[in-house]
Structure formats: structure tokens, C-alpha cells
């Protein structure tokens, strides 16, 4: 095996940095060269979907009072038309703070994109460093991912990814001189705090507190950390769950108290969001034409059916992990977390292209066969490129049907390719071994061809 030391880790982070620079350069093509009176890039901003440089960051400079530097949530709410007003944004509170911070010194959408990218980039580098410390060279799956160029600065996802990966690192590497020799509950509670912070950024990391609690409940790897004479560490598992829940509450409480309507509006907006052509989910594509946004009955059905099925998928993933624990003596909390994420991406009514960033670390941390990684990369590229070319075709009356439009065909490949892959990954991830030794600095040796 090629040695992986500090120099290699630095090189890994450097490679990631180069891709992040490329990702910013790609998005910055949509900025300027002129700006209108509101700081919106001109001329012909509406044409930029076809240039494959569109980003939500640049787009949301207008429409959420970001350009007016309004502090988020405190005076906001939902307007009569269902749109967010007064500084409320459609993301959890820590993402809202990042959006506000990125706009402080901005005078136009190009400045906002630049300052936001500068805020986000360190989190992408941190993910590379953490993954390298866990899985060594396999972290190149993150550092050299085409998805970084496409999605790193599309939205505000990198901090949430860093929290999720940081939680895995805290559990299995610890920190300081004691490292992973610290008590498991102590490491897992710190991980729970990180997952709570992640939930206050993009929600999904909070899901992983449940399998982490089950890992602690069963004493970690082969029950090594169980209290003397006990079969279960119930108190430890509860403390882990509380560390996540309390973190989420403490972060949200000031906003809920000082600006309840503005804080609540972000959740209501997402709850009431309709399944439409922009959601890229099975709910839109599998139920055409019933899934038309004007079909109130269908939209109401999806509103409760989607979260119900997601909850059932979470329980199923945890149950499969439990069966795995009964055979191996180690609850596969990382694999179960990956399966839960796949279930969420598959069944949620919105599947934005940048959600690929959420899944990529699991391709590093779990010994997923390279064919699966390549297939998902191809599907992601098909959707990430095709969907914006397709939006451009729709906006400007170009051929847009699946019979005469390559972008439409690429979207179908991306949507249904991801559906098939997410379903398969949901089934295999709980039984896929991790690529690192659970509680040491030694990398676990796995045979990829066996998966």
C-alpha cells in the first residue's frame, strides 16, 4: 500500500482546493459583466441556464431581501402569495446566517457569490481533510469529484456536509492526545452536537443521531464500550440523542422567540412547496400528468405520504442495521446513516442536484464498489448538466420533449438513473463495511470486489 502521511493529506486537500476554485470559476461565469439597479447581473440574466453556470446563491440575491442586508427571520414571514418576505429564507437558521454573512459587504449578485464562496470553501477543504484522516486515499472520491465543480457553490450545502463527516471523525478518531481512547459516549455526544449543528444547516445530518445512538446502545465495536456487567448502554444512547436535540433547540430558540413568524415561515414554505418540474423527484416524474402543480389533491397526498414513507425507510434501515449487528457484533451506524440518506433522497418531494454532495462522503467511508460510484457520477452529470439546458430550452421555446431534445433525455437518464441507484444503495449500504478501523488510526483492509 502507498504510504499516506501528512504530505499526502496536504496534497489531498490541495487537490480539493483546485476543484473548488474550478467550481467557483464555473459559477462566476454567470456574474456580470454589467449590473442593473438592483445589483442583478446583466444583460440577459434569464439566459444563463444555458451557460451551465446558474447557482441558487447568485439567484437568491434578490427575492429574499438579501440585497437589503436584512437580518434573517426576525421580521419575516409568508406573504399572501405564499412567498417568503421580510428576510425569511427557506433554509434552517444557520444557513440563513451564512446567507446574511455572505451579503454583508456585497453590492451585487457577483459580490454575493464571491463572498459566499469564500465562506463555504473552507468547509469543503475540511471535509477533504477529515475524509483523508479516516479513509486515506479513498478520499480522492471527494477531492476529485466532478460534483464539486458542479455543486460546491450552487447552494449552501458544504457546512452541513462538514458537520456530518465531522461527526464520523469525532466518533472514530476522537481529538487531542487521547483520540479514540476517549470514552465512546463522550465522543458520540460531541458527534451528536455536530449532527445537531448540521440539522440547523440543512436538516439531513440530524437523521444520523438515531443510528449513532444505536451504536452507543450496543457498546460500539463488538460491545467494547459497554458499562461493566451490562448488555446495553441505555443511558449513553439517551445522552447522544439529547446532545443532538438540545443543540437543535438551543440554536433555533433565539429565532423562534424573537421572530416566531419569520422562523416558522421557513418550515411552512418547505412543507407547502409543490411537486413540479424543478423538484427532480419521483413524485413528479412517476405520476404525470396527475402530478401537475395545479392538482391540489395530489399535492396534498404527497405532502403527507412522502414524509410517512421516509420515516418508514428510516426505521427499515435501522432494523437492517440491527440484524447486521446480531451477526457481527458491531452496529453499522455509518452504513445505516447512508441508507437513511438514500431513502430520504429517493422519497423526498424535492431532489436538488447539489444533494450529491451529501452522498459523496459515504462513497468514501463505505467500501462501495467502484462501479456504483462511477454509475452515480454519470447519473449526476446527466442530471446536473441536462436539467439546466432543458430549463433553457423551455424558457426560449426550443425543442424540449424527450423525443427531440438531448437535454430532456439527459434529465430522464439522471432522474431515473439516480432512482435505481438510490434504491440499490439503500439495500446494500447497511451491510457494506467501512473503509477505516472503527477506533484506531489504522485503515481497515477491505476487499472491494467482495461487495
UniProtKB/TrEMBL annotation:
TM ranges: 84-105, 112-132, 152-171, 192-217, 237-260, 301-325, 355-375, 381-398, 410-429
Record keywords, A-Z: Membrane, Transmembrane, Transmembrane helix
Regions annotated as coiled coil: none
InterPro entries: UCP010361 (IPR016570)
Protein name, per record: Putative membrane protein
Naturally occurring in which organism (per UniProt): Crossiella cryophila
Amino acid at each position: 500500500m502507498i504510504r499516506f502521511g501528512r504530505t499526502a493529506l496536504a496534497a489531498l486537500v490541495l487537490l480539493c482546493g483546485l476543484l473548488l476554485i474550478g467550481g467557483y470559476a464555473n459559477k462566476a461565469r454567470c456574474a456580470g459583466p454589467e449590473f442593473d439597479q438592483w445589483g442583478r447581473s446583466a444583460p440577459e440574466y434569464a439566459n444563463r441556464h444555458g451557460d451551465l453556470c446558474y447557482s441558487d446563491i447568485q439567484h437568491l440575491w434578490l427575492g429574499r431581501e438579501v440585497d437589503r442586508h436584512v437580518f434573517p427571520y426576525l421580521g419575516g414571514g409568508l406573504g399572501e402569495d405564499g412567498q417568503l418576505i421580510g428576510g425569511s429564507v427557506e433554509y434552517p437558521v444557520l444557513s440563513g446566517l451564512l446567507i446574511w454573512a455572505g451579503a454583508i459587504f456585497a453590492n451585487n449578485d457577483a459580490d454575493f457569490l464571491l463572498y459566499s464562496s469564500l465562506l463555504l470553501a473552507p468547509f469543503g477543504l475540511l471535509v477533504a481533510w477529515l475524509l483523508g484522516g479516516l479513509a486515506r486515499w479513498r478520499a480522492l472520491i471527494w477531492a476529485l469529484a466532478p460534483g464539486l465543480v458542479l455543486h460546491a457553490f450552487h447552494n449552501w450545502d458544504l457546512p452541513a456536509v462538514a458537520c456530518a463527516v465531522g461527526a464520523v471523525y469525532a466518533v472514530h478518531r476522537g481529538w487531542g492526545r487521547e483520540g479514540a481512547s476517549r470514552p465512546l459516549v463522550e465522543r458520540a455526544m460531541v458527534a451528536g452536537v455536530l449532527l445537531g449543528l448540521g440539522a440547523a444547516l440543512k436538516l439531513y445530518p440530524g437523521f444520523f443521531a438515531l443510528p449513532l445512538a444505536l451504536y452507543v446502545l450496543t457498546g460500539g465495536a463488538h460491545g467494547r464500550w459497554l458499562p461493566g456487567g451490562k448488555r446495553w448502554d441505555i443511558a449513553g444512547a439517551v445522552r447522544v440523542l439529547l446532545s443532538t436535540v438540545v443543540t437543535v433547540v438551543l440554536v433555533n430558540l433565539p429565532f423562534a422567540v424573537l421572530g416566531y413568524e419569520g422562523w416558522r415561515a421557513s418550515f411552512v414554505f418547505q412543507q407547502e412547496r409543490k411537486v413540479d418540474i424543478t423538484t427532480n423527484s419521483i413524485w413528479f416524474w412517476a405520476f404525470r400528468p396527475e402530478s401537475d402543480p395545479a392538482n391540489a389533491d395530489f399535492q396534498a397526498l404527497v405532502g403527507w405520504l412522502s414524509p410517512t414513507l421516509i420515516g418508514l425507510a428510516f426505521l427499515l434501515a435501522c432494523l437492517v442495521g440491527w440484524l447486521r449487528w446480531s451477526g457481527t457484533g458491531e452496529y453499522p451506524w455509518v452504513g445505516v446513516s447512508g441508507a437513511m440518506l438514500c431513502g430520504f433522497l429517493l422519497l423526498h418531494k424535492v431532489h436538488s442536484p447539489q444533494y450529491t454532495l451529501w452522498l459523496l462522503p459515504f462513497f468514501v467511508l463505505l467500501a462501495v464498489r467502484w462501479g456504483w460510484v462511477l454509475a452515480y457520477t454519470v447519473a449526476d452529470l446527466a442530471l446536473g448538466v441536462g436539467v439546466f439546458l432543458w430549463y433553457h430550452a423551455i424558457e426560449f421555446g426550443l425543442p424540449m420533449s424527450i423525443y427531440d431534445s438531448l437535454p430532456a433525455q439527459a434529465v430522464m437518464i439522471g432522474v431515473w438513473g439516480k432512482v435505481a441507484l438510490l434504491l440499490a444503495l439503500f439495500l446494500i449500504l447497511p451491510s457494506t463495511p467501512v473503509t477505516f478501523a472503527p477506533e484506531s488510526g489504522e485503515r481497515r483492509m477491505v476487499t472491494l470486489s467482495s461487495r
